[in-house]
Automatic annotation (TrEMBL):
Organism: Aegilops tauschii subsp. strangulata (Goatgrass)
Domain DNA-directed DNA polymerase family B multifunctional: 571-655
Gene3D superfamilies: DNA Polymerase, chain B, domain 1, Palm domain of DNA polymerase, Ribonuclease H-like superfamily/Ribonuclease H
Protein name: DNA polymerase delta catalytic subunit
InterPro entries: DNA-dir_DNA_pol_B, DNA-dir_DNA_pol_B_exonuc, DNA-dir_DNA_pol_B_multi_dom, DNA/RNA_pol_sf, DNA_pol_palm_dom_sf, DNA_pol_type-B, DPOD/Z_N, RNaseH-like_sf
CDD domains referenced in this protein's UniProt entry, alphabetically: DNA_polB_delta_exo (cd05777)
Lineage: Eukaryota, Viridiplantae, Streptophyta, Embryophyta, Tracheophyta
GO BP terms in the entry: base-excision repair, gap-filling; DNA replication proofreading; nucleotide-excision repair, DNA gap filling
Length: 671
């Protein structure tokens, strides 16, 4: 590419809105286990032309049911093990990153790097490291020889991505935490029976995981005293077996074996109800280590090591044991926000007349990028990448390229150098990001989809269907960008506000009092095929489409609100957009249960979504015109009030079998 510098004497950057982008001149011109297989997305657009800026479906509009295999309940939580080697490209493909690198472009992009690390962090581990965690996932790799000298073979490694107070990026690899669940211990089970049970279970696991390289599937079986949260229990505790397995996905296969039945020595064949066997591995780790979404984590001096094999692009890549992590409650100094880097971007495509852009045919002609530090009023990077020449724009770094390939690779390099923590935009999860990935595939740019923080790990895109009782059925795309949170403002708007239209124009007019630039989609190709001045007009339009989501994010305080919601509910920030309400409730239940030594059963069919329940009484409204105002009355917190008034809880529900046994016992005692 041949990036053109912005002239200091360029014409002013004029916009038709009251706030002309508020852009003053710049002062210095792995799939990795993500805690679940499926993510939510925005509802399907009513027509192809609405895909970029969709309108809402009419209330009650019927939607065709998806195939049963594709439907995903919000509570259907499944881990997905991805081995570390599977996320790495072949060396010859990785070497392509070094080819055709434009040095002038590299020099311009390097100005936007993060601040350099202090010398003591570069050289050793003599000081503690505190960072605000933004994303948590896990990957399967080899056991750490120094931290786990008695372990070998594949193990789950938790990865925590975050940012320090100074703005340095961190990838913390946590070792030693193992997946587990509980079953109720049968009466009369002796220590010898437990040992035989473990051997039998190990044999059954080997049989059902024949292709696995794991040497030992069942790591341990331990007898513990706990109490189930279900039903009133006159006895304070009972015996449970804690079963620890080698990898997170083996929890599900082990659960299946136990539910179908297994032979236990002299006790014969028994089937088991499992407890806490449907908890996502990342969430299990957070609960056990008292970590909540968006809180600060500290690695004490001397308790961590610099990674010997650097796998990420983060400035600090550290290894530690899970037991050495210090999780700070979000209070006082630790309630503050790290200076997250937020990238807002938008793409424009040259569609054919009468057709919505398709990545198989239509090129990406412009990409606008605004990079902002969390808490700052203005972006510190204002950039637009254009195909063919573009007249300068005051306060904006304009980069023009000869080919579409150059644009895509320059955008990838911008992501690498600027290293955003959060990527935002409007409908980016369903349109912009998948379009860029698919377009690169069409152009055979194999080195493009390396946008995450893990070295040479491809971004993965797949179609998903999400079903939630609150949000209904949604079809979207799951885009995995490791180590970076994607925050789609369209999804957030649809979840949090009831509006007549969810187009960017309507939402911006409603909340900001300003709208997009006056460029109709039908003339985008004509502007691109014109001259540098017409492409400048298109660039201003594209920049405004990247700027409005950032303004909405700031105006509605989305980052603050979502971080605080993650802290209150205890789930990762990414869950708040990708999942429904049940995961938030489950997370809080599990935390309280852990405090009180309770376990939560995994009851079959509890998340099927097929059961219906009679709701509250709804009186039909008498439609008509009323000259006098109509008073609307409603109960405040009706259901919680009923629960408290009648002491309704899992643990106060009396089991009818237990009740009969208690009555018989009382009768016998009376006699």
């Amino acid at each position: 590419g041949n990036p053109n510098s912005t002239s200091p004497r360029s014409p002013p950057f004029r916009l038709s809105s009251p706030h002309p982008l508020s852009l003053p001149p710049s002062p210095a011109m792995s799939s990795v286990g993500r805690g679940g297989k499926r993510r939510a997305g925005p509802p399907a657009a009513p027509s192809p032309l609405a895909a970029k800026r969709p309108q809402p479906m009419p209330p009650g509009a019927p939607q065709p049911p998806p195939p049963a295999a594709a439907a995903a309940e919000e509570e259907d939580m499944m881990d997905e093990d991805v081995f570390l080697d599977e996320t790495i490209l072949a060396e010859d493909e990785a070497a392509l990153l070094l080819l055709d690198r434009d040095e002038a472009l590299a020099s311009r992009l390097s100005r936007w790097k993060r601040p350099a690390l202090p010398a003591d962090l570069v050289s050793g581990c003599s000081r503690s490291v505190a960072f605000q965690q933004l994303d948590i996932d896990y990957v399967i790799g080899e056991s750490h020889k120094e931290f786990l000298p008695n372990s070998s073979g594949p193990a789950a490694i938790i990865r925590i991505f975050g940012v320090t107070r100074e703005g340095h990026s961190v990838c913390c690899q946590v070792h030693g935490f193992e997946p587990y669940f509980y079953i109720s211990c049968p009466p009369g089970m002796s220590p010898d029976d437990i040992s035989g049970f473990k051997q039998t279970l190990e044999a059954r696991m080997k049989e059902s995981n024949r292709n696995s390289s794991v040497q030992r599937f069942v790591k341990s079986v331990e007898l513990l005293q706990k109490q189930t949260i279900m039903h009133y229990q006159p006895n304070k505790s009972q015996s449970f077996l804690k079963i620890v397995v080698a990898l997170p996905t083996m929890v599900a296969s082990c659960r299946g074996i136990l539910e179908r039945g297994i032979t236990i020595g002299s006790l014969g064949s028994k089937s088991f109800l499992t407890y806490e066997s449907n908890i996502l591995f990342a969430l299990r780790f957070m609960i056990d280590c008292n970590i909540v979404g968006g809180n600060w984590i500290e690695l004490p001096a001397g308790k961590y090591r610099k990674a010997t094999r650097v796998m990420s692009y983060c400035q600090l890549e550290l290894d530690c044991l899970y037991s050495d992590l210090v999780s700070h409650a979000p209070e006082g100094e630790y309630s503050k926000m790290a200076p997250f880097r937020i990238l807002s971007f938008d793409i424009e495509c040259a569609g054919r007349k009468g057709h919505f852009p398709e990545p198989t045919h239509d090129p990406v002609i412009q990409i606008a990028n605004l990079l902002t530090l969390q808490g700052e009023a203005q972006p510190f990077v204002r950039n637009v990448m254009t195909l063919k020449s573009c007249s300068p724009i005051v306060g904006v770094d304009v980069m023009s390229f000869d080919t579409e390939r150059d644009i895509l690779l320059a955008w990838r390099d911008l992501i690498r150098e600027a290293d955003p923590d959060i990527i935002i935009g409007y409908n980016i999860c369903k349109f912009d990001l998948p379009y860029l990935i698919e377009r690169a595939e069409v152009l055979k740019i194999v080195e493009f989809p390396l946008l995450g923080r893990i070295r040479n790990s491809r971004v993965r895109v797949r179609d998903t269907t999400f079903n939630s009782r609150q949000y209904g059925m949604r079809e979207s795309k799951d885009v995995t960008v490791e180590g970076r949170v994607q925050f789609d403002l369209l999804q957030a708007m649809q979840r949090d506000y009831k509006l007549s239209s969810y187009s960017l124009n309507s939402v911006s007019a409603h909340f900001l009092g300003e709208q997009k630039e006056d460029v109709h989609h039908s003339i985008i190709s004509d502007l691109q095929n014109g001259n540098s001045e017409t492409r400048r007009r298109l660039a201003v339009y594209c920049l405004k489409d990247a700027y409005l989501p950032q303004r909405l994010l700031d105006k509605l305080m989305y980052i603050y609100n979502y971080v605080e919601m993650a802290r209150v509910t205890g789930v990762p920030i990414s869950f708040l957009l990708s999942r429904g309400q049940s995961i938030k409730v489950l997370s809080q239940l599990l935390r309280k249960a852990k405090q009180r030594n309770l376990v939560i059963p995994n009851i079959k069919g509890q998340s099927s979504g097929q059961d219906t329940f009679e709701g509250a009484t709804v009186l039909e409204a008498r439609a008509g015109f009323y000259e006098k105002p109509i008073a609307t009355l409603d109960f405040a917190s009706l259901y919680p009030s009923i629960m408290m008034a009648h002491n309704l809880c899992y643990c106060t529900l009396v089991n009818i079998i237990l009740l009969i046994a208690m009555l018989i016992s009382e009768k016998n005692n009376a006699v």
